[in-house]
Design brief:
By secondary structure, the chain is α+β, with helices and mostly antiparallel strands. It folds into two domains: 189 residues, BirA Bifunctional Protein, domain 2 (2-Layer Sandwich); 41 residues, SH3 type barrels. It has six helices and twelve strands. Helix 2 packs across helix 5. The longest helix is centred in the last third of the chain and has 22 residues. It starts with a strand and ends with a strand.
Length: 240
């Protein structure tokens, strides 16, 4: 799968740029849109993502067949791909379900995935923001605990090299995902879960639940062990 890289100086967000400008995709296209700066970066639940220069802001755009197994867990594959890149650098992050990357209990990266149905295919728009060379003063502007690679590892990172490594890992894992869904990634993902075995508060979009983070299903959904000793499964939501 060949990558078509689109580099931009400044956009509102790479995700919005992708949806507005990528009108006709071929089945074999794999596009990576990156920007030095976003003026209106967005995360899940329309949260603002601080997007100053020196960090990595990407949106991958590609097609998948509608009948692919475990389609909605595609964002888990990108999260795992980033973790594999960081492990190669002797960094051990964790995943806050569904797809936030945490390092030393602080948020390092977030992923936003949107699927647009079209005949027999699905257009996938999957964006990722990574705090790479963000300094302490910038991090303090974020309303929740956050960190960056440069803060944790004490070095300046080459953004293009990091992007190249991430794209390579993602494409490699995507090939496996196309053939067998999330199954081959399940155990690795579960072993990297932040708060596994801990009591958590979980918001499903309508209601808050309190229980123990038990596990994930074979297709990437969250299992919460409830006070009544039942396991409740969630497809989406947020750990508070």
């Amino acid at each position: 799968m060949k990558i078509q890289d689109i580099f931009l100086d400044e956009v509102t967000s790479t995700q919005e740029y992708a949806k507005k400008n990528i009108s006709s995709l071929n089945e074999d296209d794999f596009i990576c849109i990156s920007a030095k700066k976003q003026t209106n970066g967005k995360g899940r639940f329309k949260r603002t993502w601080l997007s100053n220069e020196g960090n990595l802001f990407l949106t991958y755009v590609f097609k998948l067949k509608k009948n692919i197994l475990h389609l909605t867990s595609i964002s888990h594959i990108l999260a795992l791909s980033l973790i594999e890149v960081l492990i190669d650098e002797n960094i051990k992050p964790f995943i806050k379900w569904p797809n936030d990357i945490f390092l030393n209990n602080k948020k390092l990266s977030g992923i936003l995935c949107e699927l647009k149905m079209e005949d027999d295919f699905v257009n996938v728009y999957i964006g990722i923001g990574i705090n790479v060379n963000m300094n302490k003063e910038e991090l303090e502007k974020i309303d929740k605990p956050a960190t960056s690679l440069s803060i944790e590892i004490k070095k300046e990172w080459n953004l293009k090299e990091l992007q190249k490594k991430l794209s390579y890992k993602f494409i490699k894992n995507l090939k496996i995902f196309k053939n067998s869904g999330f199954t081959q990634f399940h155990e690795k993902f579960e072993n990297l879960l932040l708060y596994k075995g801990d009591k958590i508060k979980f918001f499903d979009g309508e209601k808050e639940h309190v229980g123990i983070l038990h596990s994930i299903t074979c297709d990437g959904r969250l299992n919460l062990y409830m006070p009544n000793k039942e396991i409740k499964t969630f497809s989406s939501g947020d750990i508070n």
